[in-house]
C-alpha cells in the first residue's frame, strides 16, 4: 500500500473530474519554496509515522490523496496522517505542491500542517487532528447528532473566513478549487477549518485569470462558468460555497441524479416560488430557526451560485451576510430563552404567592 507503483489504474471511486491532462498542467504553478521554509513544519521518517500511528491502527478516512490515519505525537498532540495511496491519480507533484502551499499559510480557519514525510519509500502529510470529523458526515447524520441552525451558521462563517483569507490575504491569492462539506473539518467545539489545499492554485491577482486545460473539482460543486471556459477565479470557490450553503439549509445532497431537477440549486429555487422558507429547510431542524435568518442565507446561496462569476459576491461580503443571519438567529434564541425564564419566574412567583397565602390546612402526619 505504501510503495508507489507507476502505471496503476486510478481508483475507480475517485470523484474528481480530471480530463486528459494532469492537475499540474497549469500555466502558473505555485511558486517553489524550499520544503523546510517554515521551521514550524516537522519532517518525519516513515519509521516515526509507524510509531505515531501505532502501526496505522486507526483509519479515520479515505480520499483522493489516500488513506487518513489517527496519530499521536510524543508531546501528546493528536494528528491526522494522510498517506499517499499508490492508486491515487494524484501524486508526488501534488504532494509537493500541497506542502509548498501549506508552509506559508496559517489561519485559525485553515487546517494546520504539522509536518510531512518524504523518506524515499513514501509520502505523507501530517495535519492537526480535527476531532469532530468533516461537515459532510454531520450533514448526512453519520456523526450521531443533528447540527442546529446556529451551529450551521457558525460553521459557515468559519469556513468563509478561511476562504476569505486564501482569496484576499494570501499573496499571490489562492483558489481552493474543491470547496465542499468533506473539506470542512470540525474541531472539538465545532470550529470549522478548511482542509485540502492539494487542489489549490496560486494565481497572480484579481485581474488575471487562469486558463487551464482540465476541470478539477467535485461534481455538484464545480462552477459551470469555469467548466465552460476553463478560466479559474476566486468566484469559482464562491460558487462551491453557495452549493454548500444550500446543503446547510436543506440537508440535501447537491446532486440527486434520479430527480427531475438533479442539481440542488434548481431543486431548491424552483420550490421556493410562492412557498415559505420552511418548504426547503432541513426537516431535521424541526422548525427551530429564525425564518428571516434562513431567508438571508437562501438569498446569499442564490447569489453565490449565479451563472456569471462577476455577479457572485466576494467571500468578504459573504461573511458579512452570514454574520447578519447569525445575529437574527441569536435574537430568536435569546427571546426564546427570555420567554422560558419569564415562565420560570412567573412559576416561581406563583409558588411564592402560594406559599404566602394560607392554603387549605393539611392533615398532620401521625
Ligand atoms: N486533519 C484531519 N482531522 C480529522 N479527520 C481528517 C483530517 N483530514 C482528513 N480527515 C478525515 O479523512 C477523510 C478523508 O480526507 P481526504 O481529504 O483524504 O478526502 P475527502 O476530503 O473526503 O475527499 P477528496 O479527496 O475529494 O478531498 C475526511 O473526510 C475526514 O473525515
Ligand atoms: Mg479532503
TrEMBL record:
Family, as annotated: Belongs to the protein kinase superfamily.
Pfam families: PK_Tyr_Ser-Thr
Annotated ranges, domain Protein kinase: 54-326
Residues binding ATP, per UniProt: 82
UniProt-listed InterPro entries: Kinase-like_dom_sf, Prot_kinase_dom, Protein_kinase_ATP_BS, Ser-Thr/Tyr_kinase_cat_dom, Ser/Thr_kinase_AS
Entry superkingdom: Eukaryota
Coiled coil, from the record: none
Official protein name in the record: Protein kinase domain-containing protein
Organism, scientific name: Zingiber officinale
Keywords in alphabetical order: ATP-binding, Kinase, Nucleotide-binding, Serine/threonine-protein kinase, Transferase
GO MF annotations, alphabetized: ATP binding; protein serine/threonine kinase activity
Amino acid at each position: 500500500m505504501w510503495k508507489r507503483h507507476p502505471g496503476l489504474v486510478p481508483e475507480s471511486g475517485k470523484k474528481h473530474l480530471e480530463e486528459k491532462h494532469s492537475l499540474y498542467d497549469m500555466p502558473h504553478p505555485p511558486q517553489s519554496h524550499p520544503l523546510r521554509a517554515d521551521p514550524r513544519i516537522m519532517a518525519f521518517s516513515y519509521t516515526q509515522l509507524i510509531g505515531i500511528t501505532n502501526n496505522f491502527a486507526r483509519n479515520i478516512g479515505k480520499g483522493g490523496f489516500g488513506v487518513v490515519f489517527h496519530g499521536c505525537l510524543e508531546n501528546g498532540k493528536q494528528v491526522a496522517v494522510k498517506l499517499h495511496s499508490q492508486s491515487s491519480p494524484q501524486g508526488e507533484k501534488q504532494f509537493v505542491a500541497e506542502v509548498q502551499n501549506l508552509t506559508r499559510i496559517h489561519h485559525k480557519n485553515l487546517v494546520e500542517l504539522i509536518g510531512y514525510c518524504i523518506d524515499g519509500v513514501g509520502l505523507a502529510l501530517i495535519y492537526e487532528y480535527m476531532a469532530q470529523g468533516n461537515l459532510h458526515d454531520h450533514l448526512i447524520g453519520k456523526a450521531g447528532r443533528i447540527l442546529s441552525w446556529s451551529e450551521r451558521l457558525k460553521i459557515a462563517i468559519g469556513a468563509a473566513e478561511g476562504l476569505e483569507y486564501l482569496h484576499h490575504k494570501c499573496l499571490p491569492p489562492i483558489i481552493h478549487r474543491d470547496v465542499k462539506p468533506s473539506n470542512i473539518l470540525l474541531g472539538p467545539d465545532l470550529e470549522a477549518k478548511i482542509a485540502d489545499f492539494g487542489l489549490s492554485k496560486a494565481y497572480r491577482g484579481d485581474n488575471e485569470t487562469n486558463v487551464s486545460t482540465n476541470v478539477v473539482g467535485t461534481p455538484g460543486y464545480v462552477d459551470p462558468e469555469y467548466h465552460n471556459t476553463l478560466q479559474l477565479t476566486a468566484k469559482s470557490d464562491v460558487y462551491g460555497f453557495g452549493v454548500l450553503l444550500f446543503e446547510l439549509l436543506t440537508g440535501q445532497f447537491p446532486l440527486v441524479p434520479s430527480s427531475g431537477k438533479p442539481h440542488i440549486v434548481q431543486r431548491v429555487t424552483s420550490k421556493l416560488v410562492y412557498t415559505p422558507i420552511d418548504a426547503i429547510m432541513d426537516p431535521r431542524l424541526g422548525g427551530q430557526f429564525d425564518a428571516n435568518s434562513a431567508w438571508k442565507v437562501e438569498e446569499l446561496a442564490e447569489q453565490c451560485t449565479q451563472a456569471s462569476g462577476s455577479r457572485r459576491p466576494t467571500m468578504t461580503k459573504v461573511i458579512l451576510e452570514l454574520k447578519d443571519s447569525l445575529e437574527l438567529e441569536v435574537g430568536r434564541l435569546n427571546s426564546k430563552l427570555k420567554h422560558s425564564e419569564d415562565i420560570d419566574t412567573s412559576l416561581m412567583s406563583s409558588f411564592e404567592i402560594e406559599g404566602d397565602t394560607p392554603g387549605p390546612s393539611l392533615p398532620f402526619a401521625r
